[in-house]
Amino acid sequence: MKIILTLMLICAFNAQAINHTFSYQGELKDGASNANGTYDIAIQAFDAPSLGATVGNVSTHTVSVTDGLFTIIDVDLGIDTFDGLDLWLQINVKKPTDTNYTGLTPLQKMTSVPYATTLIDKGAINGQVLTFDNASGWQPATPASGFDGAFSSLTGIPSGLADGDDDTQLTESQVDGFVANNDYVNTSDTITWDKNAADDFTGDMNNNKITNLAEPTTGLDATNKQYVDNNISTLDTKIDLIYSYLAVPYLIGGIHQNVLVSSITGSGWQECYKGLYTESNLDLATIISACPKSKLMMACRVTNSPTLSLLAADTRTNVLFDVGDGRFVKHDSLFISWYYSDNSSWGFLPLGETVDRFSCDVETTNSDKRLCWHTASGNLNAGYRCGDIKNSTGVGVGERLIYQHD
After folding, report:
1. What is the CA radius of gyration of the chain?
2. Is 80 within 8 Å of 87 (Cβ atoms)?
3. Whose CA is closest to 38, among 93, 96, 100, 99?
4. Domain residue limits, the chain
5. Is CATH 1.10.3210 correct for 2-111?
6. 306 versus 52: which is more confidently predicted?
7. Closest to 90 in 3D by CA, of 44, 147, 27
8. Dihedral sign of CA atoms 230, 231, 232, 236 in order
């Protein structure tokens, strides 16, 4: 495909603003013959003849070509494209049925037009702007350097400001008199604040936190301020964490009981492990790798029941927090206590309760909200409890499941 192109300028001699679009004429050949029919043509500007950086927008058109000739009336590369620097046009052509455009070479340099040539040079020096009047047309501005920033270079200044007003100052007594005479401050006014009165103080604090006195005047003030300063960042972190928990169902509210499986899967949780409490020697690393997402849920149920008897969910870090093999150790999250060890047990219990991992949790307080699975030597083994139902071999306890969520 070969193209011979000429650039045609359309001039409008009137007082309206100059249109930044332009017309484009060309002769298009398809092989050795003149092209005929409908073609898609895309025009884009570059700052160099060898495809430098793109400038402005791509102007695309569906063009009717007759005996090789075509005209595009409204090529629009964007109002900010013509910044006075050299531009080269890339012409891309394809038939409507083609998938890709064919880029034509060489790129076409854009030339100035009669209207634009009147703006070139005129004897202006570097950085100097041009001004226009009907008598002389475009001429270099005066002064040659443009506005120098000096107050004295301005014209039309009110007489009262002729000296720049750079030496006028009010005395302290003048300021005090102005404030007092205009009732900006009444010396009898006081500002009070009572922590128990909701309407004592209103206004925009710009997210600033009141941490007691900026300069404590008593020992108790200093202690209170230090306590707040030490804990405010921890509080912010916990608030952010709570917001992240609210985004995923079942992460808040602690331990849940008697929840339909359809409610779990319908809220975005995916089952990634299911097995019987009677199964042993299951590789924990394999099970955990099958559940790689950032939120995990441990659950148990009567075998094949549509309802989960007991479940708890948390971040992956909390659910898999390795507390070692200690008998009474656990890891407290926001709503639940967790424990994990690949050589003792894995499970959860209500926050604030004690655990007795012997080797699974045998505590009886709130026993219906405790879940524990036996582990040993990196394996998940048979037993032990799904709430009140428990057995060291897992017989009659049911199924254990893991779900995951982004």
Report:
1. 40
2. no
3. 96
4. 2-111, 119-143, 189-245, 256-405
5. no
6. 306
7. 44
8. positive
